[in-house]
Amino acid sequence: AQSVTQPDIHITVSEGASLELRCNYSYGATPYLFWYVQSPGQGLQLLLKYFSGDTLVQGIKGFEAEFKRSQSSFNLRKPSVHWSDAAEYFCAVGGVEYGNKLVFGAGTILRVKS
Amino acid sequence: NAGVMQNPRHLVRRRGQEARLRCSPMKGHSHVYWYRQLPEEGLKFMVYLQKENIIDESGMPKERFSAEFPKEGPSILRIQQVVRGDSAAYFCASSLSGGNGEQFFGPGTRLTVL
Fold first, then answer.
1. DSSP code string of A64-78
2. For labelling alongside A9, which of A30, A73, A86, B18 has CA 20 to 30 A away?
3. Tell me, what DSSP letter sits at residue B103?
């Protein structure tokens, strides 16, 4: 079955500390990979995406993610977290093998403590 | 350049009533997707439409739910005889092309069934 796993439901980091949010997908030789951020009561904003090419992708707001095919992973990272980064983060997978839809993980809620 | 628009943003219905959710895609986009987000869960694909055609409705409940994207006007997600379990956030996304073109999300409609 096509699934996306975000193993951490909640993560708390101190402001200024580094961040890594984990994402694994179950299926697909050529996945398209996405990270979205959602603030409470808001829609989804695309942080970054991977279709092909360089496996380290840069996104908005200082985020980056690395695609590791051998681990079926697409972890999101930020070297220094800001209080405004507190939100919920969703990993999503699409691609030919997923048809016309995106399959989302359950999300990781990030809390930032000052 | 307006993004994806959804209305209403909040909708309250009593059990047994009908809910109509509207989505206007980004200008020039002819591909529309509907997703549902249940409380504390990720987004789940419901249906993918192009103008006047349903392309993939594999995520739609078999009863009470329908979707359309007419030649003119917004896409409509219709839920008949709503039940409490329909309470969720419903997100619409649009893309310029199908086949996993990047999807842009609207702010969502939050449906509450009393």
1. EEEEEGGGTEEEEEE
2. A30
3. P
Percent of chain B that is helix, strand, coil (3-state, to 5):
5, 50, 50
Q: Token pair of B57, please?
A: 């409705």
Note whether B42 contacts A96, CB cutoff 8 Å: no
Positive or negative torsion for Cα B81, B42, A34, A26: negative
**Residues B88, B65: Cα–Cα separation, whole Å:** 14
Q: What is the pLDDT of residues A53-70, one digit of tens each?
A: 999 999 999 999 999 999
State whether A105 and B42 contact (CB < 8 Å).
yes
**pLDDT 10s per residue in chain B (114 long)?**
578 999 999 999 999 999 999 999 999 899 999 999 988 788 999 999 998 899 999 999 999 999 999 999 999 999 999 999 999 999 999 998 776 668 899 999 999 999
Are the CB atoms for B58 and B77 separated by under 8 Å? no
The whole-angstrom separation of Cα B56 and Cα B54 is 6
β-strand B5-7 against B19-24: which pairing, if any? Answer: antiparallel
Chain B residue numbers with beta carbons less than 8 Å from the beta carbon of A105 are: 42
A102 contacts: CB under 8 Å, gap ≥ 6: A34, A92, A93, A94, B33, B35, B43, B45, B103
